[in-house]
Amino acid sequence: MIALVIGLELNEASLIENEFTVRNLKLQKDVLETRRSAIRWLALSLGILNPGESRLSSLAVLDALIHFQFVKNSDPNVKELTEYINANWEQINEKTLRYHLLRMKKMGFIENTQGKFYFRRNDMSGLADIDAWALYIFETNYKGIAQKVGEVIKTIKSRNAI
Predict the structure, then answer these.
(1) Which domains does the chain have, with CATH numbers?
(2) I need a surface site. Which of 61, 138, 142, 153 has the fewest CB within 10 A?
(3) What's the pLDDT tens digit per position in 6-19?
């Protein structure tokens, strides 16, 4: 007897809630020699920038956010971000800036309220504790994924598949 199994075709794209890329990069001494190389390393590590990608605008936006959040301890608006980037990197237009902000928001790194942009954070730690912030970002993204993966494996294990 031949068992006919009709497969459920999944629209994989519709299942993706978000993507979170993390790369474990070597942290060599030369990476920390300049602010730009440290920003590039961070962007590669967090998946904001892909290997071999040469666009500087995403690096400039990340640098501006870090400057306001961790140096100035403030939540910047588009005008403040633009001014910082234009003074410290190269000219950026508002459309490009908003593209990168939206991309980082979809990645789960930033949020915005009333025209102000800020790194997602645990209300308990705020931004003063950078290590707690980084841990919060990773835990919130991976905890949900880990739970779903565990549930699927348990379901597969409980079935008697041939």
Answers:
(1) 60-144 (1.10.10.10)
(2) 153
(3) 455 667 878 777 66
